Amino acid sequence: MTHRITKAVIPAAGLGTRFLPATKAMPKEMLPVVDKPAIQYVVEEAVAAGLEDVLMIIGRNKNALANHFDRVTELESNLEAKGDLDRLERTKAPSDLADIHFLRQGDPKGLGHAVLRARRHVGDEPFAVLLGDDLIDAASPILPKMIDELEKRDATIIALLEVDPAQIHLYGAAAVEATDDPDVVRVTGLVEKPATEDAPSNLAIIGRYVLKPEVFDVLEHTQPGKGGEIQLTDALQELAADVEGTGGVYGVIFRGRRFDTGDRLDYIKAIVQLAVERDDLGPDLRPWLREFSSHLE
């Protein structure tokens, strides 16, 4: 590897239909998790891994994303005049996080198409893709390990999570072989949302990828799959075959805490768990939760 990875791509063009009517006028990525929108956690994760050049692939009615990461000088001046320095710092933080760019996806042709749209910005460099629905606990990051593995193996790296076999039909599933590292497997095949009896394992693909630029050539000729969309999973399946010496695909098994904020129940759990752990909210929230839960028994 000749390039240290510095670029992250965040596809954010989805409609958020599971959260209607809340997402009728507001992007799902802007739904708050405690007091920050979900998308800010994702950008913070990228920056913590050294990825300070962030490209968001957006769709129509997503201007709120750009506004959130922009400066609001009138609000900042108002807070500064009031001496409210804590809120001032939190207000300025999103615009100081990274060099953030926005690109319209245009036609909604799926995740693979969204990644392909990043080709001109990324160029001939490896890069990371972070899906906004997956919030990874900052205490157990996975991107640094994935980046290290790409540089070590010169291969495409995906994040995998062990799930209940009864739930594997909700994910892409990986067929794998062991390596010398118990947290890293070689991926030999991928199946998008298989029936439980057809799943090659209970290792599910989650929304973190560290990709070599060769993925763009594969995506260029990837035909639409399920739902008539260009599936990133189909391109990864071709790369896993390593037919042209692309290095293959490896998976890093994630053993930390993850929240699927695209699911309503998991979204609520994320808010409660993160709030409970905060110094400013936890001391009052924890006893209230104990009292509240006692009435449910």
UniProtKB/TrEMBL annotation:
CDD domains: UGPase_prokaryotic. InterPro entries: GalU_uridylyltTrfase_bac/arc, NTP_transferase_dom, Nucleotide-diphossugar_trans. GO terms for biological process: UDP-alpha-D-glucose metabolic process. GO terms for molecular function: UTP:glucose-1-phosphate uridylyltransferase activity. Residues 7-274 form the Nucleotidyl transferase domain. Keywords: Nucleotidyltransferase, Transferase. SUPFAM superfamilies: Nucleotide-diphospho-sugar transferases. PANTHER family: UTP--GLUCOSE-1-PHOSPHATE URIDYLYLTRANSFERASE. This is UTP--glucose-1-phosphate uridylyltransferase. It comes from Orlajensenia leifsoniae. The lineage of its organism: Bacteria, Bacillati, Actinomycetota, Actinomycetes, Micrococcales.
